[in-house]
Design brief:
With 540 residues, this protein is of the alpha+beta class. The chain has 13 helices and 18 strands. The chain has a five-stranded mixed sheet. Strands 10-11-12-16-15 form a five-stranded antiparallel sheet, with no helix packed on it. A hairpin with a 5-residue loop joins β8 and β9. α2 runs antiparallel to α6 and α3 packs antiparallel against α5. The longest helix is centred in the last third of the chain and has 32 residues.
Length: 540
């Protein structure tokens, strides 16, 4: 009876961990695509006869303003503080601009996925200036520190938590060497410190501040308010669970805490970043979670295995790793393929975009790591288990080489912080799209003209009676929505351009493949008509 009870308990453990993982994934806030500027007033590069009183910046998703600066023709700058947010548009009040020449409006916002985005649009009053200073040059020292913090964070999280998991699974707490007892907790501490540094650097980068701002409060307050704040919090809890597992005496407590640490690690990296924001968000976050868990189980095995080989205690760990690595790699490959699918708009982006080039470099290193792993599993593992001479030393050397490749892979992956994925850079270029709505009370013809570099998108709505005579209406509103993508309703008032045609001349929408459209027609104070349709932006 006791054996059956223990068996039922063992079966419940993975089910409970899976339930916790699903709950965490459901809790992670929904994020959208990487923000980009889609329209502005005045348009960049225009020449104006008079100075504008206001400016507007329209984005493909909701953003939060961080820093707005007006650069005058003489190179002086003035920070703008009066910013009004409307949907995906920022409205700014501009100061008087009496001098002729070229002006620059430098903007810096933070997108829904927690990444700062910046740029400068230029416009001239009267005669353009000969040159304009670029106020948004990248900071190589700051970027280098961001890359290093990412790399150290990956090493501490994957190596430290992976080590804890394998120690719990093999129950080697009584056989852990003094060197292992020191190094594994140090890897966890490295991950915690790197997470803290990453959080501060998000604020510094978002506000375009010097590194000395890390010793103030402004950058930290900004960083905590982004999705990176959630990611760091989950990461710290994961590291705390791993540390408690390392110190626990009971094998059961070790396993439970290690499983929770691994689950929270996946949730941490799935809560922020490029990969977690791709549409559909549920698939992206689940793929990131699975990818991270598989990476921790794969990459986190190398250091504990190397130390076990030195002390002739490798039998149990080597057998466990050899048995489970095919399933781990299968999850890793499938989740990686899903992330590639949602991140890339076309095959050519694999070598034409910087994001694709980073991915290609990473895949080459992963293939080398897989080749070494195959050599270990099919040639050296059996030799070590059979206690052949020099087999242990050969395997230890290869395992160390594998860990060097792991460091290189993570170093390359950290470069993705500076390379938006192709799906975030792709612009929707569609032909004119038409749609027809026919009800018993009214007929409607919709014509959508996509945006160009010179103008925003335009939607015209022609309304008719059932006998095709023009429908007389007092007001018309067009409401765009996409519940599947988590986009709230966006309402545009239409203007009457002729007897039967209404026009929305400034349609500013996030870049999604399709939209649900509701046309609200006010016939009189007592009569209102609703017309529903779908606008497919991928239609030919």
């Amino acid at each position: 009876m006791q054996t059956q009870s223990l068996h039922r308990q063992a079966c419940c453990h993975p089910l409970l961990v899976l339930l916790i993982a699903l709950l965490l994934l459901a809790w992670v806030p929904a994020l959208h695509a990487h923000a980009s500027l889609v329209a502005s007033k005045p348009d960049s590069g225009t020449i104006l006869a008079q100075s504008p009183r206001t400016a507007s910046l329209s984005f493909n998703e909701s953003v939060s303003p961080l820093l707005m600066t007006l650069i005058r023709p003489d190179g002086s700058s003035e920070e703008l503080g009066d910013v009004l947010m409307q949907d995906q548009r920022l409205e700014l009040a501009l100061p008087p601009m009496e001098t002729e020449g070229t002006y620059g409006l430098s903007w810096r916002v933070i997108s829904a996925d927690g990444h700062p985005v910046g740029g400068t649009l230029t416009f001239a009053i009267g005669t353009p200036s000969a040159n304009l200073m670029d106020s948004t040059r990248s900071n190589p020292v700051r970027n280098g520190l961001i890359w290093l913090a990412r790399l150290l964070g990956y090493l501490g999280l994957f190596t430290g938590i992976g080590w804890v998991v394998y120690r719990a699974l093999t129950s080697t707490s009584n056989q852990t060497s003094a060197q292992q007892s020191r190094l594994a907790p140090r890897m966890l501490a490295l991950g915690a410190i790197a997470l803290l540094l990453n959080l501060g650097l998000v604020g510094v980068d978002a506000l375009d501040l010097p590194l000395s701002a890390l010793f103030g409060t402004t950058a930290w307050k900004t960083a905590v308010s982004t999705s990176m704040g959630v990611a760091v919090l989950l990461g710290w809890v994961a590291l705390a669970c791993a540390a408690l597992s390392w110190q626990a005496r009971s094998p059961t407590s070790q396993k439970w805490l290690a499983a929770l640490a691994l689950t929270l690690l996946g949730a941490s990296l799935a809560s922020s970043g490029h990969a977690s924001t791709a549409d559909p968000a549920c698939l992206s976050r689940l793929s990131v979670w699975l990818h991270v868990v598989a990476l921790a189980l794969w990459m986190g095995s190398f250091l504990p295995l190397a130390y076990a080989l030195e002390q002739a205690q490798e039998s149990r760990l080597l057998t466990l790793f050899s048995r489970w690595i095919p399933a781990i790699l299968l999850v890793l490959i499938l989740s990686g393929a899903a992330l590639i699918y949602v991140q890339f708009d076309q095959l050519a982006s694999l070598w034409e975009s910087r994001y694709g080039q980073v991915l290609s470099a990473k895949l080459i290193l992963v293939l080398l790591l897989l080749a070494l792993g195959a050599y270990n599993r099919y040639r050296l593992t059996q030799a070590v288990l059979q206690q052949r001479s020099n087999a242990r030393q050969a395997l230890r050397r290869v395992v160390r080489l594998e860990y060097v490749l792991v460091v290189l892979i993570l170093a390359v992956a950290a470069l993705w912080r500076f390379t938006p994925p192709p799906r975030a850079l792709a612009q929707l270029v569609s032909p004119t799209i038409s749609s027809h709505i026919h009800t018993e009370a009214v007929r409607a013809d919709l014509l959508y003209i996509p945006a160009t570099a010179q103008r925003p998108a335009i939607l015209t709505v022609s309304l008719y009676e059932p006998d095709f005579s023009p429908l007389k209406a007092q007001e018309v509103e067009v409401i765009f929505s996409n519940p599947q993508a988590g986009v709230e309703s966006i309402t545009f008032p239409a203007k009457l351009t002729r007897q039967d045609q209404w026009e929305v001349s400034n349609v500013e929408l996030p870049h999604l493949a399709s939209w649900d459209i509701r046309i609200q027609v006010l016939i009189s104070d007592f009569e209102r008509i609703h017309l529903d349709s779908t606008l497919d932006l991928q239609a030919n």
